[in-house]
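Work package 3, deliverable 3.1, input record:
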Amino acid sequence: MTAETISAPRHRPIRRPLFRRRSAIPGFGLTLGVTLTILSLIVLIPLSAVAIKASALSPGEFVAAAFSERAMAAYRLTFGAAFVAAVINGVFGVLTTWALVRYEFPGKAVVNALVDLPFALPTAVAGIALATLYAPNGWVGQYLTPLGIKAAYNPVGVTIALIFIGLPFVVRTLEPVMRDLSADVEEAAASLGAGRFDTILRVILPALGPAWLTGFAMAFARGIGEYGSVIFIAGNMPYKSEIAPLLIIIQLEQFEYANAAAIALVMLAVSFLMLLVINAVQAWARRFS
Amino acid sequence: MARSKARHPTEDPVWAKAVIIGLMLAFLGLVLILPLAAG
C-alpha cells in the first residue's frame, strides 16, 4: 500500500452557488432584461446620442453654444416659468382636488372631465386658444391692458400656458390619495379638540405631502419640455420671451446640430438634477407621513 | 322633536365650501374653461 492510498481523502473545494437564494417570484431575470432593453431603446440610447452629438464641439465651442447670453436668458425663462406655474398649480390643484373629492356641487362632473382636457388637447390648440384670450385685443386681454397688465407675448404668457398644461398632473396625482384619506383620522383629531383648520393643517396636508410633491415634479417637468402651446403666446423675442426648446429648434433649422445638442444637454442635466432633488425631498417627506 | 342641524366635525363650514368652490371656478375659468371656449 502506498502512501497515497492511505492518506485521508482530499476534500473537494466548496463551490459557492452563483445566486445565493432563488427569489420566490419567478421571472426576475426575464423581467429585468425586458425592462432594461426597453429603457435603453426608448430613453438611454436617445439621450446618450445627444451627448455624443454635443461631443463634436470643442470645450470652448460647447461653452459658447450652451452658455451664450441668449441661451442663459432662455434657460432662466424656461425653468423659472415652469417653476412658477408648478407652484401655482400646486396651490390651486389642492383646492380643485379638495372641491372635487369632498363637495357636491352642480356641474361637478363637467369640471371633473374638463380637468383632464389638457392631457388630450393638442398643445398647439391650447396655445392658439390662450393667445386669443390673453392677447391685448383678446377676450380677457382687452380688460387687462388698460390696467397696465400684459398677459401675452411675454413671460406671463409663458407661465399661463404652462399652468394650463400642468394642472391635471397635480389634480390627478392628489385625487386618489385625498380620496383614500380615512375619515377616522379627522374624527380622531376633532375628538381630541382640534379645530377644522388645525385638522387640515396638521393632519390632512402632511398626509398629502408626498403626492403633492409628485404632482409638483410632474407639472414642473412637463413645463420644462413644453413647446407647442408656449410658442403661440410667448412672443418668442430673443432674450425676453424665448424658451429653450424654441432655441433648440432655431439651431436645428440653421443646421447647427451640435449647438442644438449642446443646449439640449444642458437642459437634460439641469432637469435631471432638479428631479433628483425633488425625489430626494419626496423620500424625506415620506418618512414623516 | 327637531333634528339637530349641528355640523359634523369633519365637514367644512358652508362659507369655506363657497370660498373653495369659488376660487376653483375662478382659476379653472381663467386658465381652462375660457381658453377652451375661445378655442
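The mean pLDDT of chain A is 88.
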